[in-house]
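Anyone else keep sequences and structure tokens together like this?

Example one:
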Amino acid sequence: MKLSKNEKGLEMSEKQSFSEHTPKSPILDEPGVFQKKLWFKSKSFGWGWTPCSKEGWLVTIGFILAIFYIAIEYAETNPALFIAYMVSLIALLIFIAYKKGEKPHWSWGNK
């Protein structure tokens, strides 16, 4: 069996691979190949997303709190600004869910 030295100076056989010495990460599918960590998953019924990680839940809770704040501050005093803020917040939530979630698709459950 032929032995060679790796970059750390350790001897290893030709049959041993780099992946045997590389610790796996929850984000890595294979060593060096990144897997997207999902914040939102597709809904079981319909179209859209639902939070599936702590980051997704934090974004969702932040969105709800921002909606309440904007409603209290601007709904009666400045309706045009209220609508502008609401549209902006909804667009931001959809953008984040699209970037950090599964590809959206229509679903009818487990069919």
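And example two:
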Amino acid sequence: MLTAATVLHQHEKRHMSGRQVWLKVNRRQFKCQPCGKPFSEALDFIGARRKYTNRLAEAMVKQVLHSSTRNVALNHQLSEDIVWSMVDYVSQKNSKSS
């Protein structure tokens, strides 16, 4: 099962040609020159302060529509909390788009 620490390192499990593939994204860190506050670079395929890609979140939500968060979490070795955060993120993202 993926732990919060694994998700924090921005790993994403994908299935490609029947194989499991891990995508690791290193988001660069910067410091604001005037105030010194750290911030991460913005990436168009990962939401702000998210540890998973938009594509993965949308795929998990599609599966939840036909199953349950518990089953999706078990099938993908994620915690149910992470699956719920994906559902929440996608619903907020879609409500902003409309």
